[in-house]
């Protein structure tokens, strides 16, 4: 690999910070409040020690696993992320092609910048649709029905955003969707000409799933009306797998099992919503202990390496999802950078498995 190659998530972040406008980088990178939630989860992840084992034949290792009975070539997929095309034009479809290549789920955000129909086609079916409840819910259920009609079999309801968290870095830059370009943003874009010219050429990113719906989605609109009754309605409407994402409480996890969901996803939304939320990696272990070994539990938030992936699996996750680090890689080096980071995380995981005496990811 030449100069500027990506060998780790930190490499990707460093390069992305250099290449993206400040407004866009801080939108991708930022978190709620003073960002102590990010630090708390990173400290919790850092404090987990894996158990080294010696003199075991670990020459033949497999990173493959199963998710909802389907084979996946990696135990990590792509978390739903809004407006990925801000990282680089075509980012959504880069992620979709990656999902197809490794047979892993690509979480398609309600606020993706590419239509959900195009993403599932490019992902060759390896796509799950992520849903936000907002307003009175009428648009929410229309989107779920649309996803079902085009072949999505798994729906991910994100429940940890009753109100959008305040992220000061983002607010200081005046970040809004759609963009409002004032003098501050103009200067920011002018100082990052590579991104600005490329984005101008390809057209500014939009929330593509709403251009066909006849109404505008306001990302700051209250989502506070969602209740357990909302979940019950969605369960009745959705015939496929239903995942609830954003769970950080044992009692809530238990109630979700009773409500008939197919899996829960332990997540703090990357600490972007509630700064004082508990470290999700710690809650993962508690939720797994309470639910027992069989119920499907997924995980995202704070993962930065293959060792982090193995830690989450060791703490009880059946499958994990990577988020903003994939956007860093795309911002840094496009599809080449994404492939480099995916390879690095795979290698880190494989080496960590060897060091801990594991040849497979079966619990």
Number of strands: 10
Structurally, how many domains make up the residues? 1
SSE string, helices as H and strands as E: HHHEEEHEHEHEHHHHEHEHEHEH
Task: Give me the CATH fold name.
Answer: TIM Barrel
CATH architecture: Alpha-Beta Barrel
Q: Say which CATH homologous superfamily is assigned.
A: Aldolase class I
Total helical segments: 14
Write down the overall mean pLDDT.
93
What is the CA-atom radius of gyration, in angstroms? 20 Å
Provide the spatial order of strands within the biggest beta sheet. Answer: 3-10-9-8-7-6-5-4
Structural class: alpha/beta
The unreliable regions are none
CATH class: Alpha Beta
Shape, per Cα inertia axes: globular
Q: Give the DSSP E fraction (strand runs of 2 or more residues).
A: 5-15%
N- to C-terminal separation?
35 Å
What can you tell me about this protein's structure?
Belongs to the FMN-dependent alpha-hydroxy acid dehydrogenase family. InterPro entries: Aldolase_TIM, Alpha-hydoxy_acid_DH_FMN, FMN-dep_DH, FMN_HAD. Its EC number is 1.1.99.31. The chain is an alpha/beta fold and 363 residues long. It has one domain: Aldolase class I (TIM Barrel). Helices cover 43% and strands 12% of the residues. The chain has 14 helices and ten strands. The strands form two sheets. The chain has an eight-stranded parallel beta sheet with strand order 3-10-9-8-7-6-5-4. Strands 1-2 form a two-stranded antiparallel sheet. Helix 1 packs antiparallel against helix 14, helix 4 runs parallel beside helix 5 and helix 13 packs across helix 14. The longest helix has 32 residues. The radius of gyration is 20 Å and the shape is globular. The chain starts with 8 loop residues before the first helix and ends in an 8-residue tail after the last helix. The mean pLDDT is 93.
